[in-house]
Amino acid sequence: MKRVLHIITKLELGGAQKSTLEILSNLDRNKYKIFLISSDGLLADEARKIDALEVKLLPSLKREINPIFDGWAFVDLYRFIKENKIDIVHTHSSKAGILGRWAAYLAGVKIIIHTIHGWEFHERQNRLIKWLFIGLERLTAKITTQLIAVCRADIEKGLNYNIGARDKYRLIYYGIDYGAFNNAPSLKRNSLGLKEDTFTIGMIACFKPQKAHSDFIKAASLIAKEMPNVQFLLVGDGVLRPKITQQIERHGLRDRFILTGWRRDIPQLLSILDTIVLSSLWEGLPIILLEAMAAGLPVVATNVGGVSEIIQDGNTGFLVPVGDYSKLAERILFLAHNSSLCEEMSKCAKGLLDGRFNTSSMVNQIEETYVHLLNKKQ
């Protein structure tokens, strides 16, 4: 039985974390003994409930760069890998990806895998920070056995920056449980403060700069001027909550917006929305868009990262340029006034998902990767 360790920086409510826990829940227990290392987060309890999974939380494993904590985390990772005689180390997220892969390499692990859930570097960063991340990824790719990308866009981006060779990459899309969204239990709209007769537009995302909530709020201001019966639902939380709340107040939208905080009942929330929006500045492959499509919701999203690989403009949703909040508002209003188009997009979205983005397909491809690499190393 091979011993597999997954490492992810933080167990927060995000696509990378959801995907990782799905993999850990479904890997074959007859073939693998499975371990998880992370820091604490809202999904820590969920991780502990996964059958036959050994979970170790490292307080030193933090997202922010901190030489002292990073050094402690590296030593703890190295020791754990050596003591538990790990055969495969599979990392997720940037910080865990760098520290975990080097700890594995120095501990003598033969198979080191990293899943790219969107690159950490982007055009809106400080140039020095951006090239620091690129340099670290280039160097660490040299000791990595396999790079897994969740969208083609991230493969091309990595290659454009000379991170690894093409034959080191493998594309494995996220997988979700369709049934959880097709058959979501009903949720009463008034339990969230939503009126029954309003067109409801939702955005489900962590409150951080990447998601550009400010653009969504600007678009909402334009929409509210055209539609008296519209409400907006923001699901999530984070460091930008005070600024987001202030911006909503400045635009006079206090009565139109509902902020729910973090929620675990995403399928139920999607079932009461009319459309979902994502105004991100950069992305990998946003899992919330797959979930929205499974729930039959039309999507309006910025055309970044791998979004265009799942949203076909005009067919399964609408794509808009980054930062163009007026176009965002225009497309949302078009959907609000065309219910037949919403229904058609819903059918097209479910058709696109059929068989391509399910959990079993994702896990099967992960296990195929493990077997292939193990056979090569024998």
Tally of individual helices: 14
What is the tally of beta strands? 13
Main beta sheet: 7 strands, parallel
| Cα-atom radius of gyration | 21 Å
The spatial strand order of the largest sheet comes to 3-2-1-4-5-6-7
CATH architecture of the largest domain: 3-Layer(aba) Sandwich
pLDDT averaged over residues:
94
Strand percentage, roughly? 15-25%
Number of domains: 2
CATH fold title of the largest domain: Rossmann fold
Structural class: alpha/beta
Helix/strand order? EHEHEHEHEHEHEHEHEHEHEHEEHHH
Task: Produce a short descriptive summary.
By secondary structure, the protein is of the alpha/beta class. It has helices at 15-26, 44-48, 67-83, 94-106, 127-141, 152-160, 178-182, 213-226, 241-250, 266-270, 287-294, 325-336, 339-353, 359-377, and strands at residues 2-10, 32-39, 53-57, 88-92, 111-116, 146-149, 169-171, 199-204, 230-235, 257-261, 275-278, 299-302, 317-320. The strands form 2 sheets. Strands 3-2-1-4-5-6-7 form a 7-stranded parallel sheet, with helices on both faces. The chain has a 6-stranded parallel sheet with strand order 10-9-8-11-12-13, sandwiched between helices.
